């Protein structure tokens, strides 16, 4: 769907989902860690400057920032007044692919997330192959994200594998412990929340070191701290973890 919009402003026909971009998924809120080249390339594609190829594919495990960068690019394009489309394919994998992808070529920037959820299914392979050709012919900028690189997606259509690797392919690296602490502190600051380093250390020792899970936990802690008029301290966090 179009950045920040519901069904009414979609550049394609309506989907059975109300897909929205997260407000926190901005380039300013992305800590690059070991992925500065990927971040810079995606931002350049988002504004359409300095590109050698109008397509980028990001791959890596969950929690490395692929979705963040795709949504940040869509926010950027939308704020420039361009029609954009972000589509998490895992959420529409059971729908007819031609119906899901119909009309995307009317956007100027298309971001397809979770490719691995549909690539390898015959109908989807054919539909994606046709879409990528139409997008390229129409001068559309394309961002793709998957768990694996194109040659590891097990497509039944060799031509689709080659299309997915048309532009730069970046392997996203998982954040190290220091990166996780910086990301948590940055996200807390964006929410107007102080996260002492000792509390961040406590979270990393006593909770899963999965960035997505940690950011969701931080959101819950923020709401709880606001409701109870408390600061983020180790006793407060310990109590909240015990309740979950």
Largest sheet: 5 strands, parallel
The share of residues in helices is: 40-55%
Helix and strand composition category: alpha/beta
Radius of gyration: 19 Å
CATH T-level fold name of the largest domain = Rossmann fold
Q: Strand order across the biggest sheet?
A: 2-3-4-1-5
Mean pLDDT comes to 88
**How much of the residues is beta strand, in percent?**
5-15%
What is the 3D form?
Answer: elongated
Spatial separation of the terminal alpha carbons: 33 Å
Helix-strand string: HEHEHEHEHEHHHH
CATH top level class name of the largest domain: Alpha Beta
Note poorly predicted spans: 1-18
Number of helices: 9
Can you walk me through this structure?
With about 240 residues, the protein is of the alpha/beta class. The protein has nine helices and five strands. It has a five-stranded parallel β-sheet with strand order 2-3-4-1-5, sandwiched between helices. Strand 3, helix 4 and strand 4 form a beta-alpha-beta unit. Helix 1 runs parallel beside helix 2, helix 4 crosses helix 5 and helix 6 packs parallel to helix 8. The protein is elongated, with a radius of gyration of 19 Å. The N terminus is likely disordered.
């Amino acid at each position: 769907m179009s950045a920040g919009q519901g069904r009414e402003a979609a550049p394609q026909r309506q989907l059975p989902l109300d897909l929205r971009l997260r407000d926190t998924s901005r380039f300013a809120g992305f800590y690059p860690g070991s992925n500065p080249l990927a971040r810079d390339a995606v931002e350049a594609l988002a504004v359409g400057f300095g590109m050698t190829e109008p397509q980028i594919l990001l791959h890596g495990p969950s929690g490395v920032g692929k979705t963040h960068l795709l949504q940040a690019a869509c926010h950027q394009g939308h704020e420039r007044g361009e029609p954009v489309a972000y589509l998490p394919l895992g959420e529409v994998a059971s729908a007819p692919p031609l119906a899901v992808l119909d009309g995307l070529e009317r956007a100027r920037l298309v971001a397809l997330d979770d490719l691995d959820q549909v690539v390898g299914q015959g109908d989807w392979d054919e539909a994606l192959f046709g879409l990528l050709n139409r997008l390229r012919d129409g001068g559309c900028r394309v961002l793709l994200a998957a768990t694996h690189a194109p040659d590891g997606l097990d497509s039944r259509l060799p031509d689709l594998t080659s299309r997915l690797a048309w532009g730069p392919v970046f392997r996203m690296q998982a954040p190290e412990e220091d990166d996780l602490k910086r990301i948590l502190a940055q996200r807390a600051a964006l929410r107007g929340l102080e996260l002492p380093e000792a509390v961040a250390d406590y979270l990393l020792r006593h909770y899963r070191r999965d960035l997505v899970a940690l950011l969701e936990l931080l959101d819950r802690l923020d709401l709880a701290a606001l409701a109870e008029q408390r600061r983020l301290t180790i006793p407060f966090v310990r109590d909240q973890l015990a309740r979950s």
